[in-house]
């Protein structure tokens, strides 16, 4: 079973448990993002979807993305205005993203202590954190390897 298939099964189960609809369009958007491996922009998703569903329009994609983000199945890469599948949708704490500037590879980290510390510091300042995005841009191990 591929990682994308495993993620789709987990998403179906999670949506069923929560009593929310995992429609065919939502499923396909998640599948396209999961198969990509790096960040995928909304209009790239629309291009891929429109070849399969003639009625696919930007609101269709954005509604699906909003649902997937709300369910913790997809993360928005703020710096690229792109989307990546969540590696551990059952994880409810903050996350951090390692983004390779050369190949676009994205890896998700779950360093809860960092997220908790930032939230605590913000609270001390009287600030209510609604969303936390931590992105680290650099080169992945493969892109750092010298060419053969």
From TrEMBL:
A UniProt-annotated Pfam family: FUR
Residues binding Zn(2+): 100, 103, 140, 143
UniProt entry keywords in alphabetical sequence: Cytoplasm, DNA-binding, Iron, Metal-binding, Repressor, Transcription, Transcription regulation, Zinc
Superkingdom of origin: Bacteria
Stated family: Belongs to the Fur family.
GO BP: any one term: negative regulation of DNA-templated transcription
Cell inner membrane found in the keyword field: no
InterPro entries on file: FUR, Fur_C, WH-like_DNA-bd_sf, WH_DNA-bd_sf
Protein name: Ferric uptake regulation protein
Note accompanying the cofactor annotation: Binds 1 zinc ion per subunit.
Transmembrane segments: none
Record's subunit section: Homodimer.
Source organism of this protein record: Vreelandella nigrificans
GO MF entries: DNA-binding transcription factor activity; transcription cis-regulatory region binding; zinc ion binding
Cofactors named for this entry: Zn(2+)
Compartments, record wording: Cytoplasm
Principal cellular location given in the protein's record: cytoplasm
Any GO CC annotation of this UniProt entry: cytosol
């Amino acid at each position: 079973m591929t990682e994308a298939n495993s993620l789709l099964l987990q998403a179906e189960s999670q949506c069923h448990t929560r009593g929310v609809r995992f429609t065919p369009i939502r499923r396909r958007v998640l599948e396209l993002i999961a198969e990509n491996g790096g960040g995928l922009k909304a209009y790239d998703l629309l291009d891929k979807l429109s070849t399969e569903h003639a009625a696919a329009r930007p609101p269709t994609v954005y509604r699906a993305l909003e649902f997937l983000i709300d369910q913790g199945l997809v993360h928005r890469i703020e710096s690229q205005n792109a989307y990546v599948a969540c590696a551990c949708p059952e994880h409810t704490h903050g996350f951090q993203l390692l983004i390779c500037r050369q190949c676009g590879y994205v890896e998700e980290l779950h360093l809860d202590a960092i997220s908790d510390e930032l939230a605590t510091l913000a609270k001390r300042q009287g600030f209510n954190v609604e969303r936390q995005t931590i992105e680290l841009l650099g080169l992945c191990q493969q892109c750092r390897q010298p060419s053969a």
